[in-house]
Here is the input.
Amino acid sequence: MATNLKVAPGKLVSVNPATGETLGQLDCASEPDVREAVARARSAQPKWRELGLPNRVAVLKEWQRVLCEKKSDLAQLITREVGKPYAEALTTEVIVVLDSARFYLDNAYRLLRDEPVAHGNLAMKQKSGRIVREPFGLVGIISPWNYPFATPATESLAALVAGNAVIVKPSEFTPLIMLEFADLLHRAGVPNEIFQVIVGDGSSGAALVNSEIDKLIFTGSVATGKRIGQMAGARLLPVVLELGGKDPMLVLEDAAIDVASSAAVWGAFVNAGQACLSVERCYVHRSIHDAFLAAAVNKSQRLRIGNGMNPGTDMGPMIHHRQLEIVEQHVEDARTRGARVVTGGRRLSELGPNFYAPTVLADVTHEMRIMREETFGPVLPVMAFDTEEEAVQLANDSEFGLGASIFTRDRARGEALARRLATGTVLINDVVCGFGISEAPHGGVKSSGIGRTHGSFGLDEMVNIKYIASDRLPGMKKAWWFPYGPAFARQIEGLLDMQFAGSVKQRVQGAMRSVGCLFGKRL
Ligand code: NAD
Here is the structure.
Protein backbone atom coordinates (compact mmCIF):
# COMPACT_ATOMS: atom_id res chain seq x y z
CA MET A 1 0.00 0.00 0.00
CA ALA A 2 1.23 3.48 -0.82
CA THR A 3 2.28 5.71 2.05
CA ASN A 4 2.36 9.45 2.04
CA LEU A 5 6.05 9.71 1.28
CA LYS A 6 8.09 10.75 -1.71
CA VAL A 7 7.50 8.26 -4.52
CA ALA A 8 10.21 9.56 -6.80
CA PRO A 9 12.83 12.27 -6.51
CA GLY A 10 11.04 15.59 -6.46
CA LYS A 11 7.56 14.06 -6.06
CA LEU A 12 5.29 13.25 -3.16
CA VAL A 13 1.89 11.66 -2.88
CA SER A 14 -0.89 12.47 -0.50
CA VAL A 15 -2.61 9.32 0.74
CA ASN A 16 -5.76 8.71 2.74
CA PRO A 17 -4.42 6.98 5.88
CA ALA A 18 -7.71 5.14 6.42
CA THR A 19 -7.96 3.57 2.97
CA GLY A 20 -4.60 3.94 1.25
CA GLU A 21 -6.30 5.82 -1.59
CA THR A 22 -3.96 8.21 -3.42
CA LEU A 23 -5.42 11.70 -3.15
CA GLY A 24 -2.85 13.51 -5.23
CA GLN A 25 0.67 13.46 -6.56
CA LEU A 26 2.62 16.68 -6.38
CA ASP A 27 6.00 18.15 -7.24
CA CYS A 28 8.26 19.11 -4.36
CA ALA A 29 9.54 22.67 -4.37
CA SER A 30 13.26 22.83 -5.06
CA GLU A 31 15.54 25.48 -3.62
CA PRO A 32 15.26 27.67 -6.76
CA ASP A 33 11.45 27.29 -6.61
CA VAL A 34 11.50 28.54 -3.02
CA ARG A 35 13.79 31.45 -3.90
CA GLU A 36 11.48 32.43 -6.74
CA ALA A 37 8.38 32.28 -4.51
CA VAL A 38 10.16 34.40 -1.92
CA ALA A 39 11.18 37.01 -4.50
CA ARG A 40 7.59 37.23 -5.79
CA ALA A 41 6.21 37.62 -2.27
CA ARG A 42 8.74 40.25 -1.29
CA SER A 43 8.08 42.44 -4.28
CA ALA A 44 4.29 42.21 -3.85
CA GLN A 45 4.19 42.80 -0.07
CA PRO A 46 4.55 46.63 0.02
CA LYS A 47 1.35 46.93 -2.03
CA TRP A 48 -0.53 44.62 0.36
CA ARG A 49 0.71 46.69 3.27
CA GLU A 50 -0.27 49.95 1.56
CA LEU A 51 -3.72 48.56 0.83
CA GLY A 52 -4.41 49.45 4.45
CA LEU A 53 -6.08 47.59 7.26
CA PRO A 54 -9.73 48.28 6.30
CA ASN A 55 -9.18 46.88 2.80
CA ARG A 56 -7.25 43.85 4.03
CA VAL A 57 -10.00 43.17 6.56
CA ALA A 58 -12.61 43.43 3.78
CA VAL A 59 -10.77 40.87 1.62
CA LEU A 60 -10.34 38.47 4.52
CA LYS A 61 -14.00 38.85 5.52
CA GLU A 62 -14.92 37.78 2.00
CA TRP A 63 -12.63 34.76 2.40
CA GLN A 64 -14.30 33.98 5.76
CA ARG A 65 -17.71 34.04 4.02
CA VAL A 66 -16.48 31.71 1.27
CA LEU A 67 -14.94 29.33 3.80
CA CYS A 68 -18.22 29.11 5.69
CA GLU A 69 -19.92 28.15 2.43
CA LYS A 70 -17.25 25.55 1.64
CA LYS A 71 -16.95 24.19 5.19
CA SER A 72 -18.17 20.69 4.34
CA ASP A 73 -15.86 20.28 1.33
CA LEU A 74 -12.91 21.42 3.36
CA ALA A 75 -13.75 19.24 6.38
CA GLN A 76 -14.12 16.22 4.09
CA LEU A 77 -10.73 16.89 2.54
CA ILE A 78 -9.22 17.11 6.05
CA THR A 79 -10.80 13.79 6.98
CA ARG A 80 -9.55 12.15 3.83
CA GLU A 81 -6.03 13.49 4.12
CA VAL A 82 -5.45 13.07 7.90
CA GLY A 83 -8.02 10.45 8.88
CA LYS A 84 -9.78 12.28 11.72
CA PRO A 85 -13.59 11.94 11.91
CA TYR A 86 -15.54 14.43 9.81
CA ALA A 87 -17.22 15.91 12.93
CA GLU A 88 -13.77 16.48 14.41
CA ALA A 89 -12.57 18.14 11.22
CA LEU A 90 -15.43 20.59 11.69
CA THR A 91 -15.03 21.15 15.44
CA THR A 92 -11.25 21.18 15.78
CA GLU A 93 -10.26 22.68 12.45
CA VAL A 94 -12.94 24.58 10.53
CA ILE A 95 -14.58 26.25 13.54
CA VAL A 96 -11.19 27.09 15.00
CA VAL A 97 -10.16 28.88 11.80
CA LEU A 98 -13.46 30.70 11.31
CA ASP A 99 -13.44 31.86 14.92
CA SER A 100 -9.81 32.90 14.74
CA ALA A 101 -10.75 34.98 11.69
CA ARG A 102 -13.62 36.48 13.69
CA PHE A 103 -11.19 37.45 16.44
CA TYR A 104 -8.51 38.93 14.18
CA LEU A 105 -10.90 40.71 11.83
CA ASP A 106 -12.97 42.20 14.67
CA ASN A 107 -9.99 43.21 16.78
CA ALA A 108 -7.29 44.08 14.26
CA TYR A 109 -7.97 47.83 14.52
CA ARG A 110 -7.67 47.79 18.29
CA LEU A 111 -4.65 45.48 18.37
CA LEU A 112 -2.65 47.03 15.53
CA ARG A 113 -3.30 50.73 16.16
CA ASP A 114 -0.56 52.96 17.50
CA GLU A 115 -0.28 52.86 21.27
CA PRO A 116 0.59 56.13 23.06
CA VAL A 117 3.02 55.67 25.92
CA ALA A 118 3.35 58.01 28.92
CA HIS A 119 6.95 58.56 30.06
CA GLY A 120 7.76 58.39 33.78
CA ASN A 121 11.40 59.44 33.63
CA LEU A 122 11.40 63.19 34.32
CA ALA A 123 14.05 63.81 31.68
CA MET A 124 11.89 62.06 29.05
CA LYS A 125 8.57 63.68 29.89
CA GLN A 126 8.95 66.26 27.17
CA LYS A 127 8.75 63.54 24.54
CA SER A 128 5.56 62.08 23.24
CA GLY A 129 6.00 58.35 22.65
CA ARG A 130 4.10 55.71 20.76
CA ILE A 131 4.41 52.05 19.90
CA VAL A 132 3.86 51.38 16.21
CA ARG A 133 3.19 47.90 14.87
CA GLU A 134 4.53 47.29 11.38
CA PRO A 135 4.43 44.10 9.33
CA PHE A 136 7.69 42.19 9.18
CA GLY A 137 7.38 41.80 5.42
CA LEU A 138 7.43 38.11 4.54
CA VAL A 139 6.44 35.49 7.10
CA GLY A 140 7.36 31.84 6.50
CA ILE A 141 5.13 29.21 8.10
CA ILE A 142 6.17 25.55 8.39
CA SER A 143 3.50 23.27 9.74
CA PRO A 144 2.84 19.65 10.77
CA TRP A 145 0.20 17.19 9.57
CA ASN A 146 -1.93 16.70 12.69
CA TYR A 147 -3.94 19.95 12.44
CA PRO A 148 -3.15 20.67 8.80
CA PHE A 149 -5.74 23.43 8.50
CA ALA A 150 -6.16 25.01 11.95
CA THR A 151 -2.47 25.46 12.65
CA PRO A 152 -1.18 27.13 9.46
CA ALA A 153 -4.45 28.90 8.63
CA THR A 154 -4.77 30.72 11.97
CA GLU A 155 -1.12 31.75 11.79
CA SER A 156 -1.53 32.88 8.18
CA LEU A 157 -4.57 35.01 9.04
CA ALA A 158 -2.68 36.86 11.75
CA ALA A 159 0.24 37.47 9.40
CA LEU A 160 -1.96 38.59 6.50
CA VAL A 161 -4.18 40.97 8.44
CA ALA A 162 -1.05 42.64 9.83
CA GLY A 163 0.10 43.33 6.26
CA ASN A 164 2.64 40.56 5.68
CA ALA A 165 3.06 38.29 2.69
CA VAL A 166 2.99 34.60 3.69
CA ILE A 167 4.59 31.43 2.36
CA VAL A 168 3.40 28.19 3.95
CA LYS A 169 5.26 24.90 3.74
CA PRO A 170 2.70 22.34 4.90
CA SER A 171 3.62 18.85 6.01
CA GLU A 172 4.54 16.45 3.20
CA PHE A 173 1.76 14.20 4.53
CA THR A 174 -1.02 16.78 4.16
CA PRO A 175 -0.26 19.21 1.34
CA LEU A 176 -3.72 19.35 -0.25
CA ILE A 177 -5.48 21.23 2.53
CA MET A 178 -3.20 24.27 2.36
CA LEU A 179 -3.51 24.29 -1.45
CA GLU A 180 -7.29 24.44 -1.01
CA PHE A 181 -6.91 27.23 1.58
CA ALA A 182 -4.74 29.16 -0.88
CA ASP A 183 -7.37 28.76 -3.56
CA LEU A 184 -10.09 30.17 -1.26
CA LEU A 185 -7.91 33.12 -0.25
CA HIS A 186 -7.05 33.94 -3.86
CA ARG A 187 -10.68 33.71 -4.89
CA ALA A 188 -11.57 36.19 -2.14
CA GLY A 189 -9.01 38.68 -3.42
CA VAL A 190 -5.73 37.95 -1.64
CA PRO A 191 -3.13 38.33 -4.41
CA ASN A 192 -1.45 35.08 -5.50
CA GLU A 193 2.00 36.40 -4.56
CA ILE A 194 0.85 37.44 -1.09
CA PHE A 195 -0.20 33.96 -0.06
CA GLN A 196 1.77 31.06 -1.50
CA VAL A 197 2.12 27.41 -0.62
CA ILE A 198 5.27 25.47 -1.31
CA VAL A 199 4.84 21.72 -1.31
CA GLY A 200 7.64 19.49 -0.16
CA ASP A 201 9.38 17.68 2.66
CA GLY A 202 12.01 18.81 5.14
CA SER A 203 14.41 19.93 2.42
CA SER A 204 11.83 22.36 1.00
CA GLY A 205 11.25 23.55 4.58
CA ALA A 206 14.98 24.06 5.11
CA ALA A 207 15.14 26.05 1.85
CA LEU A 208 12.40 28.31 3.22
CA VAL A 209 14.20 28.78 6.55
CA ASN A 210 17.37 29.76 4.68
CA SER A 211 15.59 32.09 2.27
CA GLU A 212 14.97 35.84 2.57
CA ILE A 213 11.99 35.54 4.91
CA ASP A 214 11.70 38.06 7.74
CA LYS A 215 10.08 35.83 10.36
CA LEU A 216 9.41 32.11 10.75
CA ILE A 217 6.54 30.44 12.53
CA PHE A 218 7.40 26.77 12.92
CA THR A 219 5.13 24.11 14.37
CA GLY A 220 6.37 20.54 14.66
CA SER A 221 8.50 18.18 16.68
CA VAL A 222 11.14 19.19 19.22
CA ALA A 223 13.88 17.54 17.14
CA THR A 224 13.05 19.55 14.01
CA GLY A 225 12.39 22.66 16.11
CA LYS A 226 15.90 22.50 17.55
CA ARG A 227 17.42 22.13 14.07
CA ILE A 228 15.39 25.08 12.85
CA GLY A 229 16.34 27.13 15.91
CA GLN A 230 20.00 26.59 15.04
CA MET A 231 19.52 27.54 11.38
CA ALA A 232 17.54 30.63 12.39
CA GLY A 233 20.05 31.56 15.08
CA ALA A 234 22.89 31.51 12.56
CA ARG A 235 21.25 34.37 10.67
CA LEU A 236 19.27 35.90 13.58
CA LEU A 237 15.96 35.16 11.92
CA PRO A 238 13.17 35.75 14.48
CA VAL A 239 11.22 32.54 15.09
CA VAL A 240 8.26 31.18 16.94
CA LEU A 241 8.68 27.49 17.75
CA GLU A 242 5.50 25.59 18.62
CA LEU A 243 6.76 22.14 19.53
CA GLY A 244 5.72 18.91 21.17
CA GLY A 245 3.99 18.25 24.46
CA LYS A 246 3.47 15.62 27.14
CA ASP A 247 0.49 17.24 28.79
CA PRO A 248 -0.46 16.11 32.29
CA MET A 249 -4.05 15.87 33.52
CA LEU A 250 -4.55 16.08 37.28
CA VAL A 251 -7.73 14.62 38.74
CA LEU A 252 -8.19 15.77 42.34
CA GLU A 253 -10.19 13.78 44.90
CA ASP A 254 -13.20 16.12 44.64
CA ALA A 255 -13.50 15.82 40.84
CA ALA A 256 -16.64 14.44 39.20
CA ILE A 257 -15.41 11.00 38.12
CA ASP A 258 -17.86 10.68 35.24
CA VAL A 259 -16.86 14.07 33.81
CA ALA A 260 -13.13 13.61 34.36
CA SER A 261 -13.05 10.12 32.84
CA SER A 262 -14.96 11.31 29.74
CA ALA A 263 -12.51 14.20 29.45
CA ALA A 264 -9.52 11.90 29.75
CA VAL A 265 -10.86 9.56 27.08
CA TRP A 266 -11.58 12.41 24.68
CA GLY A 267 -8.33 14.19 25.55
CA ALA A 268 -6.23 11.09 24.91
CA PHE A 269 -8.03 9.79 21.81
CA VAL A 270 -9.18 12.88 19.91
CA ASN A 271 -7.42 12.85 16.54
CA ALA A 272 -6.21 9.34 17.53
CA GLY A 273 -4.06 10.96 20.21
CA GLN A 274 -2.15 12.97 17.62
CA ALA A 275 -2.63 16.40 19.18
CA CYS A 276 0.15 18.50 20.67
CA LEU A 277 -2.22 19.22 23.59
CA SER A 278 -3.35 15.58 24.03
CA VAL A 279 -3.70 14.17 27.51
CA GLU A 280 -0.46 12.17 27.50
CA ARG A 281 -0.21 11.58 31.26
CA CYS A 282 -3.09 11.23 33.70
CA TYR A 283 -2.58 11.53 37.47
CA VAL A 284 -5.55 10.60 39.64
CA HIS A 285 -5.94 10.93 43.41
CA ARG A 286 -5.59 7.46 44.93
CA SER A 287 -9.00 7.67 46.64
CA ILE A 288 -10.79 7.72 43.26
CA HIS A 289 -8.13 6.07 41.09
CA ASP A 290 -9.82 2.68 40.68
CA ALA A 291 -13.27 4.11 39.98
CA PHE A 292 -11.78 6.59 37.48
CA LEU A 293 -9.78 3.85 35.75
CA ALA A 294 -12.81 1.57 35.45
CA ALA A 295 -14.89 4.42 33.95
CA ALA A 296 -12.12 5.41 31.51
CA VAL A 297 -11.63 1.81 30.38
CA ASN A 298 -15.35 1.32 29.91
CA LYS A 299 -15.66 4.49 27.82
CA SER A 300 -12.56 3.64 25.75
CA GLN A 301 -13.96 0.24 24.88
CA ARG A 302 -17.17 1.83 23.62
CA LEU A 303 -15.37 4.03 21.05
CA ARG A 304 -16.08 3.21 17.40
CA ILE A 305 -12.90 3.05 15.35
CA GLY A 306 -12.87 3.33 11.57
CA ASN A 307 -12.89 5.57 8.53
CA GLY A 308 -13.53 9.16 9.59
CA MET A 309 -15.99 9.63 6.72
CA ASN A 310 -18.36 7.24 8.45
CA PRO A 311 -20.62 9.43 10.65
CA GLY A 312 -20.54 6.81 13.43
CA THR A 313 -16.76 6.92 13.79
CA ASP A 314 -15.25 8.33 17.00
CA MET A 315 -11.60 7.67 16.24
CA GLY A 316 -9.80 7.28 12.93
CA PRO A 317 -6.42 5.88 11.93
CA MET A 318 -3.01 7.21 12.75
CA ILE A 319 -1.36 9.27 10.05
CA HIS A 320 1.19 6.67 9.00
CA HIS A 321 2.94 3.52 10.00
CA ARG A 322 5.98 5.22 11.48
CA GLN A 323 3.81 7.02 14.03
CA LEU A 324 2.03 3.79 14.90
CA GLU A 325 5.37 2.08 15.51
CA ILE A 326 6.38 4.78 18.03
CA VAL A 327 3.15 4.08 19.93
CA GLU A 328 3.83 0.34 19.86
CA GLN A 329 7.35 0.87 21.19
CA HIS A 330 6.13 3.06 24.06
CA VAL A 331 3.42 0.59 25.04
CA GLU A 332 5.86 -2.33 24.81
CA ASP A 333 8.42 -0.49 26.92
CA ALA A 334 5.75 0.22 29.56
CA ARG A 335 4.55 -3.39 29.50
CA THR A 336 8.04 -4.83 30.01
CA ARG A 337 8.65 -2.41 32.90
CA GLY A 338 5.54 -3.55 34.73
CA ALA A 339 2.64 -1.46 33.40
CA ARG A 340 -0.77 -3.09 33.07
CA VAL A 341 -2.45 -2.81 29.67
CA VAL A 342 -6.03 -2.55 30.88
CA THR A 343 -7.50 -2.22 27.41
CA GLY A 344 -6.15 -1.94 23.86
CA GLY A 345 -2.43 -2.26 23.41
CA ARG A 346 -2.60 -3.66 19.88
CA ARG A 347 -2.94 -2.78 16.23
CA LEU A 348 -6.34 -3.07 14.62
CA SER A 349 -5.00 -4.60 11.40
CA GLU A 350 -8.49 -5.77 10.46
CA LEU A 351 -9.38 -2.09 9.85
CA GLY A 352 -6.24 -1.15 7.92
CA PRO A 353 -2.51 -0.75 8.43
CA ASN A 354 -2.65 2.52 10.42
CA PHE A 355 -5.22 1.69 13.08
CA TYR A 356 -4.32 1.26 16.75
CA ALA A 357 -6.76 0.47 19.54
CA PRO A 358 -7.55 3.08 22.20
CA THR A 359 -5.26 1.95 24.99
CA VAL A 360 -5.41 2.53 28.74
CA LEU A 361 -2.37 1.72 30.89
CA ALA A 362 -2.24 1.46 34.68
CA ASP A 363 0.66 1.03 37.12
CA VAL A 364 2.89 3.30 35.05
CA THR A 365 5.98 5.04 36.42
CA HIS A 366 8.18 7.93 35.35
CA GLU A 367 10.91 5.46 34.37
CA MET A 368 8.79 4.44 31.38
CA ARG A 369 9.04 6.12 27.94
CA ILE A 370 5.24 6.45 27.92
CA MET A 371 5.54 9.01 30.77
CA ARG A 372 8.60 10.85 29.46
CA GLU A 373 8.54 11.02 25.64
CA GLU A 374 5.81 12.37 23.41
CA THR A 375 3.80 9.32 22.32
CA PHE A 376 1.45 11.11 19.94
CA GLY A 377 -0.99 8.23 19.73
CA PRO A 378 -4.11 6.79 21.35
CA VAL A 379 -2.73 5.88 24.77
CA LEU A 380 -3.96 7.01 28.19
CA PRO A 381 -1.48 6.13 30.95
CA VAL A 382 -3.03 6.53 34.42
CA MET A 383 -1.04 6.91 37.63
CA ALA A 384 -2.18 7.41 41.26
CA PHE A 385 -0.99 10.20 43.55
CA ASP A 386 -1.54 10.84 47.25
CA THR A 387 -0.96 14.54 47.82
CA GLU A 388 -1.36 17.74 45.84
CA GLU A 389 2.35 18.35 46.31
CA GLU A 390 3.15 15.01 44.69
CA ALA A 391 0.74 15.73 41.81
CA VAL A 392 2.47 19.04 41.06
CA GLN A 393 5.90 17.43 41.26
CA LEU A 394 4.86 14.64 38.86
CA ALA A 395 3.21 17.05 36.42
CA ASN A 396 6.31 19.26 36.31
CA ASP A 397 8.70 16.31 36.00
CA SER A 398 8.93 16.60 32.23
CA GLU A 399 11.12 18.19 29.59
CA PHE A 400 7.91 19.49 27.99
CA GLY A 401 5.62 22.32 29.12
CA LEU A 402 2.88 22.91 26.57
CA GLY A 403 -0.49 22.44 28.30
CA ALA A 404 -2.04 20.82 31.37
CA SER A 405 -5.46 20.24 32.83
CA ILE A 406 -6.89 20.01 36.35
CA PHE A 407 -10.18 18.46 37.38
CA THR A 408 -11.74 19.65 40.64
CA ARG A 409 -15.07 20.99 41.83
CA ASP A 410 -13.19 23.74 43.68
CA ARG A 411 -12.40 26.42 41.13
CA ALA A 412 -10.20 28.49 43.45
CA ARG A 413 -8.14 25.41 44.31
CA GLY A 414 -7.80 24.55 40.62
CA GLU A 415 -6.66 28.07 39.75
CA ALA A 416 -4.14 28.11 42.59
CA LEU A 417 -2.75 24.77 41.43
CA ALA A 418 -2.65 25.99 37.82
CA ARG A 419 -0.12 28.66 38.80
CA ARG A 420 2.25 25.96 40.02
CA LEU A 421 2.37 24.05 36.72
CA ALA A 422 5.24 24.81 34.34
CA THR A 423 3.23 25.03 31.12
CA GLY A 424 1.94 27.59 28.61
CA THR A 425 -1.74 26.79 29.21
CA VAL A 426 -3.76 25.19 31.99
CA LEU A 427 -7.39 24.22 31.53
CA ILE A 428 -9.55 23.64 34.58
CA ASN A 429 -12.26 21.04 34.08
CA ASP A 430 -11.57 20.66 30.36
CA VAL A 431 -8.84 19.27 28.14
CA VAL A 432 -7.08 20.02 24.83
CA CYS A 433 -9.45 22.77 23.67
CA GLY A 434 -7.23 25.76 24.54
CA PHE A 435 -6.31 26.05 20.86
CA GLY A 436 -9.98 26.69 20.13
CA ILE A 437 -10.02 29.85 22.27
CA SER A 438 -9.06 32.45 19.69
CA GLU A 439 -8.34 35.07 22.35
CA ALA A 440 -5.93 32.79 24.25
CA PRO A 441 -2.22 32.78 23.48
CA HIS A 442 -0.95 29.34 22.48
CA GLY A 443 2.57 28.11 23.15
CA GLY A 444 4.80 26.39 25.60
CA VAL A 445 7.75 26.57 27.94
CA LYS A 446 10.81 24.32 28.24
CA SER A 447 11.18 22.02 25.19
CA SER A 448 7.64 22.83 24.06
CA GLY A 449 8.84 25.97 22.37
CA ILE A 450 9.39 29.68 22.18
CA GLY A 451 6.88 32.45 21.47
CA ARG A 452 3.13 32.40 21.04
CA THR A 453 0.53 32.10 18.32
CA HIS A 454 -3.19 33.02 18.64
CA GLY A 455 -4.78 35.96 20.38
CA SER A 456 -3.17 39.36 20.69
CA PHE A 457 0.25 37.85 21.45
CA GLY A 458 0.01 35.83 18.24
CA LEU A 459 -0.65 39.04 16.30
CA ASP A 460 2.27 40.76 18.01
CA GLU A 461 4.52 37.97 16.72
CA MET A 462 3.64 39.09 13.17
CA VAL A 463 4.77 42.68 13.59
CA ASN A 464 7.90 44.63 14.20
CA ILE A 465 7.34 46.67 17.34
CA LYS A 466 8.72 50.10 16.57
CA TYR A 467 8.95 52.92 19.09
CA ILE A 468 8.64 56.51 17.93
CA ALA A 469 9.50 59.21 20.48
CA SER A 470 8.98 62.77 19.36
CA ASP A 471 10.39 65.70 21.34
CA ARG A 472 7.87 68.43 22.15
CA LEU A 473 10.56 71.11 22.49
CA PRO A 474 12.47 70.85 19.22
CA GLY A 475 14.28 74.12 19.83
CA MET A 476 15.92 72.99 23.06
CA LYS A 477 19.24 71.18 23.50
CA LYS A 478 19.12 68.33 25.98
CA ALA A 479 20.73 68.59 29.38
CA TRP A 480 22.51 65.24 29.05
CA TRP A 481 24.32 66.18 25.86
CA PHE A 482 27.96 67.42 25.87
CA PRO A 483 29.65 69.12 27.58
CA TYR A 484 29.64 67.45 31.03
CA GLY A 485 31.41 68.85 34.10
CA PRO A 486 31.28 68.90 37.91
CA ALA A 487 28.26 71.20 38.11
CA PHE A 488 26.31 69.01 35.73
CA ALA A 489 27.17 65.83 37.66
CA ARG A 490 25.98 67.50 40.92
CA GLN A 491 22.73 68.48 39.27
CA ILE A 492 22.21 64.93 38.10
CA GLU A 493 22.89 63.63 41.63
CA GLY A 494 20.28 66.08 42.87
CA LEU A 495 17.84 64.94 40.22
CA LEU A 496 18.33 61.32 41.25
CA ASP A 497 17.78 62.20 44.94
CA MET A 498 14.71 64.21 44.02
CA GLN A 499 13.11 61.15 42.46
CA PHE A 500 14.47 58.20 44.36
CA ALA A 501 15.87 59.22 47.78
CA GLY A 502 14.37 57.57 50.86
CA SER A 503 13.20 60.67 52.80
CA VAL A 504 11.15 63.74 51.87
CA LYS A 505 13.93 65.96 53.16
CA GLN A 506 16.50 64.35 50.87
CA ARG A 507 14.11 64.66 47.95
CA VAL A 508 13.56 68.39 48.57
CA GLN A 509 17.31 68.96 48.89
CA GLY A 510 17.84 66.97 45.71
CA ALA A 511 15.28 69.11 43.88
CA MET A 512 17.08 72.26 44.92
CA ARG A 513 20.42 70.93 43.72
CA SER A 514 18.98 69.85 40.42
CA VAL A 515 17.49 73.23 39.49
CA GLY A 516 18.58 74.06 36.00
CA CYS A 517 19.38 70.50 35.08
CA LEU A 518 16.22 70.02 33.07
CA PHE A 519 16.31 73.42 31.44
CA GLY A 520 18.81 72.62 28.77
CA LYS A 521 22.31 73.75 28.01
CA ARG A 522 23.57 77.01 26.85
CA LEU A 523 26.20 75.45 24.58
P1 NAD B 1 8.02 17.38 12.11
O1 NAD B 1 8.93 18.14 12.98
O2 NAD B 1 8.49 16.08 11.59
O3 NAD B 1 7.62 18.24 10.81
C1 NAD B 1 7.02 19.50 10.91
C2 NAD B 1 7.27 20.27 9.62
O4 NAD B 1 8.66 20.56 9.53
C3 NAD B 1 6.92 19.52 8.35
O5 NAD B 1 6.33 20.42 7.44
C4 NAD B 1 8.27 19.05 7.83
O6 NAD B 1 8.31 18.84 6.43
C5 NAD B 1 9.14 20.22 8.22
N1 NAD B 1 10.57 19.91 8.35
C6 NAD B 1 11.16 18.74 8.64
N2 NAD B 1 12.50 18.89 8.68
C7 NAD B 1 12.76 20.19 8.39
C8 NAD B 1 13.96 20.95 8.28
N3 NAD B 1 15.16 20.43 8.47
N4 NAD B 1 13.84 22.27 7.98
C9 NAD B 1 12.63 22.83 7.80
N5 NAD B 1 11.48 22.14 7.87
C10 NAD B 1 11.52 20.83 8.18
O7 NAD B 1 6.66 17.21 12.91
P2 NAD B 1 5.35 16.40 12.49
O8 NAD B 1 5.60 14.95 12.67
O9 NAD B 1 4.86 16.88 11.17
O10 NAD B 1 4.30 16.91 13.58
C11 NAD B 1 4.14 16.35 14.84
C12 NAD B 1 4.80 17.21 15.91
O11 NAD B 1 4.29 18.53 15.86
C13 NAD B 1 4.52 16.71 17.31
O12 NAD B 1 5.69 16.77 18.07
C14 NAD B 1 3.49 17.70 17.83
O13 NAD B 1 3.45 17.82 19.24
C15 NAD B 1 3.96 18.95 17.19
N6 NAD B 1 2.88 19.94 17.15
C16 NAD B 1 2.99 21.02 17.96
C17 NAD B 1 1.95 21.95 17.99
C18 NAD B 1 2.04 23.16 18.87
O14 NAD B 1 1.27 24.07 18.65
N7 NAD B 1 2.91 23.22 19.85
C19 NAD B 1 0.85 21.78 17.17
C20 NAD B 1 0.77 20.67 16.35
C21 NAD B 1 1.81 19.75 16.35
Observations:
- The pocket of nicotinamide-adenine-dinucleotide is lined by residues 142-147, 151, 169, 171-172, 201-202, 205-206, 209, 219-221, 224, 227-228, 242-245, 276, 374, 376, 402, 449 (CB under 6 Å).
